[in-house]
Amino acid sequence: MLTAGAAALLAALGLVSPPVAGAAPASGPDAFTETAQQQIAALQAVKAGRTAAESKLDSKLLVAEKGVAKQLDALQSGAAVSAAGTVLVDVRASKVSPDLLAGLTKAGAGIRAVSDRYASVRAEVPLDKIGEIAARADVKRVEQADQAMTARELATPATTPGKTGTKTETKQQKADRIAGELQKAISAKAQRSAAAAAPLVSEGDRAHNADIARQQFGVTGVGVKACALSDGVDSLAGSQAKGELPPDVDVIAGQEGEGDEGTAMLEIIHDLAPRAALGFASAFNSDASFADNIRKLRFESHCDVIVDDVIYFKESPFQDWIIAQAVNDVTADGALYFSSAGNEGNVASGTAGHWEGDFVDSGKAIGKFAGTAHNFAGAAGNQIYEPISNASSAGVPVTLHWSDPLGASANDYDLYLLNSAGAVVSFSQNVQDGTQDPYEILQTPTFGGTGLRLAIVKFSGQNRYLSLSALRGRFSDSADGLKAYNTPGVTVGHSATRDAFSVAAAPAAGAFGRPLEPGDPANPAGPYPGSFSGATKAERFTSDGPRRVFYEANGTPITPGNVSSTGGEVRNKPEITAADGVQTSVTGFSPFFGTSAAAPHAAAIAALVLSGNPGLPPAEVREALINTAVDIEKPGPDNFTGAGVLLADKVLAYTGASPQPLAVAKQPTVTPADGGSALDPGDTAKVTLPVTNDGDGTAVSTSVVLTSPTPGVTVAPRAKSYGTISPGQTGVNDFTITVPASQQLGVPVVLNARVTFAGAHSPTTQTFSLPVGTPSPVAQDFAYSGAPVAIPDNSPVGASVTIPVTGVGRASKVTFSVDGTSCSTDPTSTTVGLSHSYVGDLVGTLTAPSGAKATVFQRNGGSGKNLCQVVFADNAATAFSTVTSANAPFTGSYRPANALGGLTAAAADGTWTFSVVDAAPSDAGTIRSVALHINGFVQPPAAGAPSNVRGVTNNGPVHPL
Hints:
This protein is α+β, with helices and mostly antiparallel strands.
């Protein structure tokens, strides 16, 4: 029913009764129907009648809240309102404070992602509370959540995992599938010989000559860390069990994501650069979280090469927004960044759905308030519509950007989608009055339509350069005489930053499996088992450039006073082309098509370059990739394949790559001179220090300088020669250390080992902590004694409990247990230590009083329910990462995700915190009973005291093994 406010607005326009589409004549190319005029006028009434707080709201949310869309024939509000009456929003604030988060929670919001750096909170909010949230002084804007998509192209959608016919795979079905695949891989691994365990290899390895390059130049990725961002790594454990990925992939805790495109991308990187270290973080929690994770991969995980395959719809074509700014930050720090150019088509192949150019006033006034429609025909006539192809009209996001600076647009443009009868179907008409972004977005109906067309209306302000994109749609001439206008340049966002590589796609093997639209030409096939050449053809869906940019990231105009088609900076994007249509072991990603597959191939080749040329400046890597690319399509660089397709052997030859040694000190063994089992204060001991060459080349003239920053500790000799160490071999030498008698019990001796050798990776430095004192065999138990704490569903806020520890001093060993008196798989049980209906959603973290953290479990266990009487210990035989739902309820002893020994560097006394974050939707649980078990050090008996006095143990419900 129409709300009072909406009714008043419509009454003022004489629109109390809904307009009827059939009452108006069909629209011409240069006119709106009477129905459209009335609908737009009604929508503009909402815009004109907004309050100050409502001006902060996304226009679709405001119209949905007021109920106006229900009164206008054919119109969809565009707001995604759940059955529970909630909407997913991005709250853009002046600052993320505890008060803001508490206020959102009080309003019934579920927190989904938080970015302090970008002052952004993604939350699931009741629709009737959005006005209350917008009215807060610390809230700048409440937007419908910015959506994203990867650059994967589905060749056979019906066989995609997550789909069974037309039904989406449920969370439980996915968990069962992944658990079954993992168990099958583990069983197969136990039964087969090493010779029979050959993994699948991407055809791109052959097509890019990467296989030949590794053999010819002897480089494998050693010394380089390559990291990916995508949707998720659901099947990571399965790929590791199959031998498709190494066991030590560095996934940022809580950023595992949902889906498996990340797993497939990592497999591609590993195929081409098999000894590069790997890392991952999700790009799908929110746009601000994506930007945060780009920075984390570089500045916390120390990734050298980063690749993603994601575009957020709000990313501006004309200025580097927060995601692009994060890319700028990491490339300025020396990282190489690769991103998919996108699958939005190109003008050369006739697959585009993009137009950009200067606003042209059609002279057609719109509505009863203000506004004139844009004329797409320009000097060639007058056409106020851009027609969308019927065959590519289903669920298409359509974005409109214009050449104002981000956060400072005073020129107000609106976007409307109409059907063939001339009725408005969808819209986006946000307010731009000086502090907002120059951006509008709508989506075509889920099942598409016939004769859909777009109209751009300048509500107020100056003429600007426009960018209109139907992402994965196509602009095509309509049956009723509308001409489609397409221009190059659909590649937008962070892939178009100056120093990122935007990567186009060309098939490595078989052709893409379906026509993009009925009647399209055949898709090209790749050269496999041959390699790419000048005859290679790009995928018909790969996005084109170039990208015109008007502002620096901080909003400074590049050409002050000229933000038209003759202004700004033109960036030649994409730069390079790489393989897609390749096999991986990941279900649903064989073949893997799209620039999503191309980008990791290019990133892996860059990892080989860095492996064979450590320290090579990014500018020289760029020069090598572009100058050696094989020209394809029309002669010379073009706007949809760049310089051409990469061949790894040519790039490595250009850079002079060679196998590099990487000599690294490993964990030493300590033998006290007095024959004791532990290093004690006053001891002299032999330290046996191994050095292993983890590199591709031979380490010659290898030597070690061993020093200690611990006061009073001496090391003799200070340096020793290790001579020549072949790849994969280990050299060993002995040193002698003396520990002062004044060394405090439990305070470790720190050794710094600096390894030098002839090679670009030299020197390497490792730090080791040698415990001082005899570890106590007795563990002291400290249990959480508070009330049960609920774990919020799908929220980064999580739940925490604290455990006070006293009387231990320094710890020699830490174990952690989730207790309980009676174990079951009942998720409502009150007798288990941690109840949860889907343990695979959870990330558990233990934080010491020093602030040191260790991840205890990390999205393991699938749909298994409850942890009960389980001990996490570094010496446990089985890693918790290997469990499946069949092991539930999870009991027994397991190795944690991170070693708990890393929490013993400082005194154990103080407050410890155990935190649990539920990182996926639809399940819930509670922390009830957890405990720490800490071993200290044996204290020497006091003078005159008997030597057989035993320590006292505070018994807890669970004892570590």
